[in-house]
């Protein structure tokens, strides 16, 4: 099954393989496996660091800054793919994520948690960089929004499995943090190893450039990535932390909140993929950013007017759903990109996405100590900035017509 004859196959040849061994089958498997480790880590994180390591807002901000450093250094993927195939690098990174997640509870101190988080983050961010590149190389442009929606639903299913098991077993069997981290991380690592052995290497039709590329015509894509990274940090770092610090959520309650968002994501993500395909990237992103601005303003209102926990729960769930529309940034780039730019630009974009992530969590963690409301007001401002950028996307983006400020390139008469 892993002999030389089928070890490397083109995308065209892969159509003759069983459906589960085709490129989309591998993308679905990875989409299911990665969240098992990452979501297990996320679901337990706030309770683990508060109960075991006595973290405050400044500590959690520092942790997430350290976690985002490998994302900022994602351009290292460009150097690695000179020597390692993207597919192999993605799966090896998935193994690292799983093993590091399993080790998390073995280091119950600020320094130990920071170090093991750095290793798991290298696995996560390098996997995500390569995964995004492979998706855009392997998926047809016309079907990409819908397939990306289904892949997001598969990821939600993997996360749902992790949260369901945590909810059902955490109190019933009095599980330790160590047991749960080992179970989640070990599963992801084993699936990645199996994928390395069972799948051939898929050869995309367009060879990828193996040097860093910054093109002026991609400037809007870079700007959207930067703002998305900055805005996402506030949600990831502080929305969940608020639920534990302000409303005293226990582990099973945090997992239950996450699970509710996942059930809805599994149903909504494929629909949102279809929405992007029908209405276009500009309309989808404009809708997302208006919604996020309103949500972050309401988050601020929770602190200003002392609104209750149920509004916070609703906002958290809806906030998470809006982020699903971020797939439109990927498909926008796919439409304007030179096919050979996808891998290096995915790495560059991931670094740009994480520029703010390196300093924003720790800076806002300090601000959080004095005014959590100000943190969410800043997030609303970021959403409105993203809204302005989204209006610059053409209705039908293509090479030569990347923004509304550039006229479409005339096509030669047939």
In short:
By secondary structure, this protein is mainly α. The protein has a single domain (4-203, 213-390), classed as Growth Hormone, Chain: A, CATH 1.20.1250.20.
Give an account of the 3D structure.
74% of the residues lie in helices and 1% in strands. The chain is globular and about 50 Å long. It has a single domain (4-203, 213-390), classed as Up-down Bundle (Growth Hormone, Chain: A), CATH 1.20.1250.20. It has a two-stranded parallel sheet with strand order 1-2. Residues 1-6 have low confidence and may be disordered. The chain has helices spanning 4-7, 11-14, 23-51, 57-72, 76-80, 86-102, 110-138, 144-169, 177-198, 219-245, 251-279, 281-305, 309-323, 327-336, 342-353, 355-370, 372-390, and strands spanning 8-10, 201-203. The chain contains 17 helices and two strands. Helix 3 packs parallel to helix 6 and helix 3 crosses helix 8 (144-169). With 414 residues, it is mainly α.
Query: What's the CATH architecture?
Result: Up-down Bundle
Sheet of most strands: 2 strands, parallel
Tell me the name of the CATH class: Mainly Alpha
Q: Total number of helical segments? A: 17
Distance between the termini: 47 Å
Mean pLDDT comes to 86
Biggest sheet strand order reads 1-2
Give the CA-based shape. globular
What fraction, in percent, of the residue positions are helical? over 70%
Radius of gyration: 21 Å
| Low-confidence residue ranges | 1-6
CATH superfamily: MFS general substrate transporter like domains
Classify the beta-strand content into a percent band. Answer: under 5%
CATH topology: Growth Hormone, Chain: A
Going by helix content, strand content and strand pairing, the class is mainly alpha
Order of helices and strands, N to C? HEHHHHHHHHEHHHHHHHH
